[in-house]
Structures are given as structure tokens and as C-alpha cells.
Design brief:
The chain is mainly beta. Helix content is 7%, strand content 37%. The protein has helices spanning 123-128, 155-160, and strands at 2-7, 10-15, 19-23, 32-35, 38-42, 47-48, 57-67, 71-77, 82-88, 91-101. The strands form three sheets. The protein has a four-stranded antiparallel sheet with strand order 2-1-5-6, with no helix packed on it. The chain has a four-stranded antiparallel sheet with strand order 3-10-7-4, with no helix packed on it. The longest helix has 6 residues, at 123-128. It is elongated. The N and C termini lie far apart (95 Å).
């Protein structure tokens, strides 16, 4: 089953479990949002709206709020010494479509609980039973040691060297 929804002045064809990057919506990650402007619902039979389908909606879970890459609008009028440079980063919301609802149904899925991805403690430290700070651990040297600077040339050798095209012989 698929649907065509309208949000942020754009239309999107969506199906269940699709992820979309759309213009910014209000909502925290994990919340459920509903899109009420459904233009087409398809599947076994296609239903077209005039302009929207009454009682149809699409439920989605907000995954992330973010900002896109920088877009630079540079305008130049040649031979006029006129330039304008403006840039911005468009804000977006990443959503996952959970359900396509018809006939005035309400979403059955609720906001999911996001679990923090906590890294477990290193196995070697827990097996030994030591509670050492990582700052106290010895630091291992990586790679080859750096070589010192080359010794400077003797000043008398620098003075004897003639530069090509110069006035070294003329006085």
C-alpha cells in the first residue's frame, strides 16, 4: 500500500517503513507525527482525492532533526563590479513512515523509546578487577621517532656560492 502526501509545499510518494528527509517539522526524535493532506491512496484499488482524501492520514515517527549541507547563492553581474554571496543551511526532519491510515483511524503505534548506545567497559580491565584511570596508563609510542633538524651549513660555504645572473664579480 502506498500514499502520496503533501507537506512543506512538496509531494512525496510513501509506503510503510520508508524514511524521508522533509522540511523541518515540530517534534522531538521518537515522537509520532501525522500528515493529514493525503492526495492518493493506492494498493489493490487506487483512491484519488479532490484535492485530498477525507479521513485519510499517514503516521510517521520522527527520527532526527538536523541541518543539511551549506547552499551558496552567488550572483554576479559581469563588467558591473556587482557581486552578492549568500549562504544558508536548510533545516530538515528525518521521518520513518509507520502506517497509512484510512477512514479516520488513529495511529496504533506509539512513540518509541530510544535506548542510549552505551559502550560496555573494556573486558581486560573488568577481568582483572582493576579500576585504573586511563590517564594513569603508560603511553605507547607510535611509529618511528622523529629525526632532528639537519645541521646548518657553514657560513663560509654560503658566501662562496655565486648566484647566477647576479653582480657577484662586478664592483
Amino acid at each position: 500500500m502506498f500514499a502520496v502526501i503533501k507537506t512543506g509545499g512538496k509531494q512525496y510518494r510513501v509506503a510503510a517503513q520508508d524514511t524521508l528527509k522533509i522540511d523541518r517539522l515540530k517534534g522531538e526524535p521518537g515522537e509520532i507525527v501525522q500528515f493529514g493532506e493525503v492526495l492518493v491512496v493506492g494498493g489493490d484499488s487506487v483512491t484519488l482525492g479532490t484535492p485530498t482524501i477525507a479521513g485519510a492520514s499517514v503516521a510517521a515517527e520522527v527520527l532526527q532533526q538536523g541541518r543539511g549541507p551549506k547552499i551558496i547563492a552567488f550572483k554576479k553581474r559581469r563588467r558591473k563590479n556587482s557581486r552578492r554571496k549568500r549562504g544558508f543551511r536548510p533545516e530538515f526532519t528525518l521521518v520513518r513512515i509507520t502506517e497509512i491510515l484510512t477512514d479516520g483511524q488513529t495511529p496504533t503505534m506509539t512513540a518509541s523509546v530510544r535506548k542510549e548506545n552505551l559502550k560496555p567497559a573494556p573486558a581486560a580491565a573488568t577481568a582483572a578487577g582493576e579500576d585504573d584511570d586511563p590517564a594513569d596508563a603508560p603511553v605507547k609510542a607510535k611509529g618511528k621517532p622523529k629525526a632532528g633538524k639537519k645541521p646548518a651549513k657553514a657560513p663560509e660555504k654560503k658566501a662562496q656560492k655565486a648566484k647566477p645572473g647576479g653582480k657577484a664579480g662586478k664592483k
